[in-house]
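EI: anyone free to look at a 731-residue chain?
SC: sure, send it
EI:
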Amino acid sequence: MSTVAGHTPGADAAAPDRRGGWLWWQWVRIGCAAGRNGTGGRLGFWARCAASAAVAVVALAAVATIATYDGRAARNQARGPVITERQQDAQALWREGFDSVGKVAHSVVYLRPLKPGAQPPPGLTRWPAPGEVMLSPELVRAGRHEGITSRYGHYAGMIGRSGLVSPSERLAYVGPSHAPDARERESWSYARGFGQSYPMGESLYTRPLTHALLALGVLTGVPALALLVVAARAGSGGRRRGPSSAPGGPRWHRAALRIGEAVRPTAAGTALAVLPMLGAMTTDLRMPPTGYLLNSGDLRSAWPMVLAALVLSFTVTLVAVAVPGPAGRGAVTGRRSSAATVPRWRPAGCGLGLAAVVFSQYLVGAAGLCTFIGGTVVMWALLPSAATVASRALGAKLAAHGLRTGRPGRLIGGRWTVAHPGIVVRPAVALIIGLGLVCQLQIANSDVGEKAAAARATQARIGDGVLNVQSRDLPPSAIEALSGSLPAGTHVLGLTMDLDQQGALLQGSCRTVRTLGLGCPATPRAVTGGDLRVTEIRDWYGPGLRVQAAPSGLRLDRLRGSLLVISDGTARRAAVERAAYALAPAVNVEAPGETWLVGAVTKTRLNNWVLLFGSLGLALLLLAGGFSAATEFARGRHTLVPLADPAGGHTVLRAAAGWHLAFPLLVSTMIAVVVTAWHAGFLTAVLGAGTYSWWLLAAALCGGGLMAAAVTVLGGRSAIRAAQRGRPADG
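SC: here you go
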């Protein structure tokens, strides 16, 4: 087969690919130049910068969460005791107890080596000597005002980072003051070393990784994606008049141009997101308001995932910008009204949802909760339609008032609000749903139950006037020693639970019993009087409480007995704890019902994470609402150019921007805050308990005001620039 001179088979097929790649790169370069020259629009630049930063922050937060969980699991595996039943193989005696500081629980681990040369657990350079204690740095910091450094014995140093699942873990390693005898060893475990996963310390209260990622994704990730969608459409007005929008222009040309325009703001936003991660990789960063310390070593070890997350977030942002949704004709010309007729049944259905929420407080138990949830779903689903009707009504009133008073800015702003109610609807709906989710999660996590509420009330009434000291290793000699080592103004009573199923028995010396106003009964008798402390003891340890003056020293049943330390309220609790821990290991010192309070605090501390993720998400929703409003105003601002001079110069442009942007945004923010507070109030009424953060509502209100002011200033300046040029301007 002959060939044409200078031509080889397959060259025609290869040339289009090379030309296509070259053209694609040329369109990207044109887009980059347009971005540098500002023809892509300042609004689009800042919107994409904010969106890329938000997406990158969420991606890096997910990486930090995964890296933190991996590091915690590795350190928990390394320090866990390897329990054995063969005493001859054991290297140490091991026992775990629990205590609390500020109603926050922590583990107290008792260690005693059995063989010379045995290796201590990770984080310790040596075994704690008898009577010594080694504490984690966070426990020292949090418990200093409660005397934690002297509670368990002589403070001998801090636990190293390798022995803590996180820098913020509260943990104590204690060397018992005396070797446990044969009877006491029943409560100890034999460990032949360390290196097995064991639930202890902070790992006892850790939520699964999937829960943390789900909370991050729902409360922060979804708002970040909403901001990305808004940013992808911001500043598109200029592009519709560009060469890539000419009839017949290939779609990939337009995509390449958009990618070129978005490269600089996307790179800038991604770089901004790296700064907090670099700080967290350099030093342990405390996360407000949770107080949790991120382990910088975990984040440094995850640097490949950090790079991958940055590349992925950068790519996702560029793809979102390159493939925007179709822009309607009225988006630029302003001739198409987005306020289409709303079916009447939708606002009516929203009203029915509100009625169901109100009615739910009169129902009991599951019926009330189901009614509340159903009404909430209906209300949120139909809220955009109701908000559209309300927005049009607001705009009509503004326009009528402007016409009546001869204020063109108010007239124009009101009519634009009627034609474009989305400026009010989108931020209002997003804030109501976002704030509602955060507040409802807070209420659910703060519902501590009746027992915890009763314990809180008891503590408010008597403080530390009654303390329960309980241990399986309290022989009569220890009880006598405790009585002699307590500060002045305190007395010791023995409490034996359900003795012969006749009720709890309270025993003490005649003097101590008389101190409580119970006389001096030689035989057990029912408690019928006494002071406020006796009332609280009876409420917590059984209505069948009986009292008896002990004829001799107190003797308690090891399994059912405990000691009650009674004081007049002047004795420090730290002194009682120090005296108790000096006598026996794993002593439990607590006020009546304190166990419920500790559990409640553990549950409510989750609200700090809800507040962290939710606050970031709400800030992103506010940004999305602001950029959305500014974008819609920018696309139609050229319609104000003919009105600038006849209506009073630039003043009318500023006024129109204010009444069309600032006023509706402020109104929508206030409505969102009021509706959220009202809605949350009904949930607390249905549950009968729970609280939410008023500071969050106040912050949302202030954030909405700042957003409205910023958007109005930018919108007014944009309209003035368009009027000065006398032609449609870029978004």
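EI: The chain has 23 helices and 16 strands.
SC: 👍
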